[in-house]
Write a structure and sequence with these properties.
147 residues; mainly alpha; single chain; 2 domains; 5 helices
Length: 147
Amino acid sequence: MITSKVERPLGVAILAVLGIIGSILAIVGGVIFIVSGTFLAEAIEAAIAQYGIIPGVDIGLILASIAIIGAVVLVIGVIGVIIGWGLWKGRNWARIIVIIFSILGIISGLLPLIYLDISGLVGVVIDIIIIYYLTRPHVVAFFKPSA
């Protein structure tokens, strides 16, 4: 018996495309951070040469921090592209990862409420909508392997 794959729901396509676009921007940002470390080093060295030693500034630590931040953002971007591709292709592991990230987003969005800060509530609502949507039967059917 041959069954055809369920057509990709529009919401899944939107989530996949937005995820891939955001992840590509993260990759570009990570590369910019890594590359800008060199330019920053030159600027700091020029400032030190012109104005003298800046007390208490560890240039190596600053440059290493920039490189590490850039590398982390780059890796997150690559992972995001992979997850977006997985959503586009109907891979259930990608759906599960997005649900897990949305749950973590809800938790991190609610934490500011401890300090009566409601700034995270928009993200919480979006994450709830994503979880709700990705658990609807017609969406789950798209992520099931075709026989």
